[in-house]
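Protein details
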Amino acid sequence: MEKKKQMSNSLFIMGLLLLVIVISDCQLTQASLTPVGIGGRVKVDGVYTNNLTVTIKNMNTGNTAVTTTTQVPIGAGFYQCALNADNNDVLNITCVYNGTAYHNQSIVDLNKVTQWLNLSIVVMPGTYTPIANFTWTPSNIYIGTMVSFHDTSTDVDADMVSWVWSIGGTVYTTRNPNHIFPTSGLKIVTLTVTDQMSHIDICSKNLNVISGDGGGGDDGDGGGGDDDNPPSANFNYNPSIVFVGNQVEFNDTSTDVDHDISVYNWTVNNLPSGETRNITKYFNATGTQAVKLTVTDSKGNTDSKTRVFYVHNLNDSNVTLFNVTVKVKINSQGLPLVNVSLYNQSVYLQSVLTNNTGVGILHVNQGGNYRITVSFQSVSESKNVTVSGDVVVLFNIGLQQNDSTNPTSKNPFKGNTVPGFEALVFIAGVALVMFVFKRRNKKR
């Protein structure tokens, strides 16, 4: 009899434990879901547009919200909605316009009242007129000093095709020319830009050329003095993701303490490609491209910088990019400045550094099997992923079994993938408690 009583008590306690585990798990799950407000504006060809249907998706949970752009409360093209999300979740906006899907993404920051996620759609190149503008270095110009002129013109369509400079009576047709003024005085420099639709804009500015050599050294003239510091080569390119047929702008960002860089040499896959400070290239085939810039200063010091990227096979905007979002964590914290590389089998495609929340976003133009490698200090890890749409890949660097991010460390049932499992456990717990309770009542 005593053994039966002990068994009955044990069953009663087990039932209560099952109930506590399931209820606490449900409470923890609900507590982790935080409703966040999401807002933004959508523009088409530079114009904020109403009555566009947009879909906001939490890429981590799969939850979606569908809404429409309106005039209120802050102006045309505005939308707002709410989704459950956790800190560092990836939000994706999709808008289908004229049969083409356009996307953008942002990372959830629960410290912000509203998660802003905007979208810009460009479908009609050639609609807008360019706006001409330029700068020059050094700021103080002396006779005999080489002056570098930098085009800073803008065009919503990004379809400028011609740059014509008039500098001291000399005409240049490169985008960023260099010029030496042989005489002092006020000089007028004029830049005329033209786009694909023959839209034209003109910008003129006055420069004052000073007599003398400027005293040399740090005043930016590049002449005189005994300084002999070597240059440091560097450049960037735009757009950052390159497709077949794209016009790609390579812009010099090299530095030199003496301000006397005088020669620029560009190569693409070891072939000479320009000697101006900035160049523009078109790529007509897919594949890996290696662009190298070598700079030389007035004293013969040189330095080089090489950047490697992949040219994707896309036709304008008719093919949708897939976003491969990589989240890198260490001890449950997002890990910044981790190098994330994407490979198609053994072919390198592209790399990105994670942001301050440990998130890096890569892009692929077609589905298939890819390999992602993350490198942090001496640690390197890889994962294979099949892409058929936007995907999220998580890396835990040095994750321990008792780490707080381990879903089984607190609850043996959390993370179970059997549908309705927790509900079945709950029902079993209730039934067990009722069974023991009835038996006790009968014995009394």
Remarks:
- The chain has three domains: 33-121, 134-312, 322-396.
